[in-house]
């Protein structure tokens, strides 16, 4: 049971990793510099929770995360966290909301080296800015393994049944005597009843 939970968690992590996107700021036609239109670049992307920003830059720049007022005024004096430097900075977008990055080098933010990143919850990206992906092709159906040819099992012929029956005697209707009519005999009544002579 515990093993199943652990492997499920590992699978969920793998799915999350596979779904997370890395965005190199300004790429592919620009970068984290003063000559890239970073506002246009950011508006062409959809950032989701779990995605990562990758800042690649020459070492005369840095990555300074600031509040929106400081972003608007290009003030790097109150960074939300120590400025990142060194030429390669990875920022994990761990929650929904807006984050503001400027370059802390003097004059660079005013020169346009600033970017606002709007991060959406992974489960509900805005439908208007979500690029519609073509439907995935139907999964190829693996061919079924061919079955070995089917051999009909040849059964031996059944022995013929020989039950010679003795010939039946010719069928005769049982002799029936015609119904005998009871012979009614007219009994002759005496034609003349002779009464004894009247006394
Ligand atoms: Cu800079």
Strand fraction: 15-25%
Mean pLDDT over the full residue set: 76
- Give the termini separation: 139 Å
Q: Main beta sheet: strand number and arrangement?
A: 4 strands, mixed
* Proportion of residues in helical segments: 10-25%
The order of strands across the largest sheet is 2-7-6-4
Order of helices and strands: HEHEEEHEEE
Hetero groups in this structure are: copper (II) ion
**Radius of gyration based on Cα positions:** 55 Å
In one word, what is the shape? elongated
* The CATH homologous superfamily of the domain at 23-120: Cupredoxins -  blue copper proteins
Find the structural class using helix and strand composition: alpha/beta
Q: Number of DSSP strands? A: 7
Q: Determine the CATH topology of the domain at 23-120.
A: Immunoglobulin-like
Tally of DSSP helical segments:
3
Instruction: Please name the CATH architecture of the domain at 23-120.
Output: Sandwich
Low-confidence stretches: none
The level 1 CATH classification of the domain at 23-120 is Mainly Beta
Organism: Sesamum angolense
GO molecular function: electron transfer activity; metal ion binding
Protein name: Phytocyanin domain-containing protein
Signal peptide: 1-20
């Amino acid at each position: 049971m515990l093993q199943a939970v652990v492997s499920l968690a590992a699978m969920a992590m793998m799915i999350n990793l596979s779904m997370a996107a890395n965005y190199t700021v300004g790429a592919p036609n620009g970068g984290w510099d003063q000559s890239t239109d970073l506002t246009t670049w950011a508006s062409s992307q959809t950032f989701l929770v779990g995605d990562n920003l990758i800042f690649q830059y020459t070492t005369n720049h840095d990555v300074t995360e600031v509040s929106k007022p400081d972003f608007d005024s290009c003030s790097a004096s109150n960074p939300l966290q120590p400025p990142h430097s060194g030429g390669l900075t990875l920022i994990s977008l761990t929650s929904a909301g807006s984050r503001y990055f400027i370059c802390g080098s003097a004059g660079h933010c005013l020169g346009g080296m600033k970017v606002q990143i709007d991060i959406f919850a992974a489960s509900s990206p805005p439908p208007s800015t979500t690029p519609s992906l073509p439907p995935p092709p139907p999964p190829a159906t693996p061919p079924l393994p061919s079955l070995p040819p089917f051999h009909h099992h040849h059964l031996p012929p059944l022995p013929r049944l020989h039950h010679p029956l003795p010939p039946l005697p010719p069928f005769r209707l049982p002799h029936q005597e015609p119904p005998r009519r009871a012979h009614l005999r007219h009994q002759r009544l005496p034609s003349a009843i002779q009464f004894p002579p009247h006394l």
